[in-house]
From TrEMBL:
Its main location: cytoplasm. This is tRNA(Ile)-lysidine synthase. The keyword Nucleotide-binding applies. SMART domains: TilS_C. HAMAP family: tRNA_Ile_lys_synt. Transmembrane segments: none annotated. Its EC number is 6.3.4.19. It holds the Pfam family TilS_C. Ligates lysine onto the cytidine present at position 34 of the AUA codon-specific tRNA(Ile) that contains the anticodon CAU, in an ATP-dependent manner. Cytidine is converted to lysidine, thus changing the amino acid specificity of the tRNA from methionine to isoleucine. Signal peptide: none annotated. It is an enzyme of class 6 (ligase). Residues 379-452 form the Lysidine-tRNA(Ile) synthetase C-terminal domain. The gene is tilS. One of its GO terms (biological process) is tRNA modification.
Amino acid sequence: MLELQNKFERHLQRSRFFTSADKVVIAVSTGVDSMVLLDLLQQLPSGLRPQIIVAHMNHELRSQSWEEEEFIRQYCQQHHLELAIAHWPQKLHPPRGIENAARQARYHFFAQTMKNYGAHILITAHHQNDLAETMLMKMVRGGQISQLIGIQDQRKFAGGMLVRPLLPFSKDILRQYAMKRQLKWYEDKTNHDLSIQRNRFRHEIIPQLEKENPQLLAHLESYHYQLAALLAWQQQEISTQLAQVIDDHDNLLIDKLVVKSYYMQKLLLQRWLNVRQVYDVKTNQVEELLALMKNQKTPQQEVLLPHQFIFEKKYSVGIIKKANNHFEDLQKPQAHVIELEQWYQVDEKNAIAISFNRKFFNDDSTVMPIWISPRQFPLRLRGWKKEDRLRLRGGHHQKVKRVLIDQKVSADQRQQQTVLVDAQDTVIWLVKRKWSWLDRPDDYQEKWRLCFIGIKIRRKTDE
């Protein structure tokens, strides 16, 4: 018991997540992990212990939820802790994707609690097992190597930081601590539902791997920190070397690129494309571009890239430009499901993002507040269609095509025009041009959410 307390204190001293002067919001579900986290924080010496605000969300998913809520009320009263509680009413539960919807509701509540109490730090009880599960799940799904980091021990959140100080500690260690401290906690039966992928990794796959090597969790944690350090170094190195292979106009100097190692060529080319606002280029196309640049028999050639961009090889220089009109029918904006607080490119210069927190946007963003009902999520960004309509005040509608004609939008720009739509494919915003009329709900406190949609000019340093 004392061993975990001592290790936890040393970990906090090294990581410097917070100070004793900070107000921190602790996400407490009443499960064993969060109850151990809360107890460990309470046991800290006064020189390390922050000002604690407990945040508990009653998801109304189980009959036990109200018992858990009453327990945490009594606990906080007994320990003289500030407590914030919110409910996620059953009438707001979606028929599908309830796990993700619950997470969004929960973190929105955490962000609001931080704002209400003037706290800038949210602490969650993610631990070593959670990290291992996430890393293995990402590995199975495939994607970018940066995703294999899994869970970060700290990241930006709601204008402050979200920190996870239990990542170095396993579930078994936390449970042993809870039993020795005679802590009370509640078990969530849904954590044993094997129809959920994470539960299969937790109860079936990882135990089998631990039979092969009992140090599996510690090794995956070590890989996590090694990979994070390597990727941080890599990003710095790429930035340094990219400056060596571009000219003053950000064109690519092919002769200087191709003398780099092959793997560095690929990394530099991918970064350069992103700097030039070209995204979604697949690995095989990156390799084709490198082959073209090295082909001395082809001094000039153009290659069509996603989102109506063209790579032009012009002797020893690589150039990015917009596609000519004869390419218009070949490329259309790709559809994206919008994730909160992620920037999405909408044209050559601008990007948009959506957040529940106005503070997410800097002064360089133009922000529009709108009320969205739960049934409208998720929002999507896609190319416009000829049947798309905007809702006008009074219940009338106007075709998107008519707006584009009235605003004298060129054919090339129309081809790249995007719209923001809801889950029913109803147009909310003809991006940069016109909003649908959105009524302010009378019952917004119960059923609707205030969202902020921001648009900004994307700088070359934005990624």
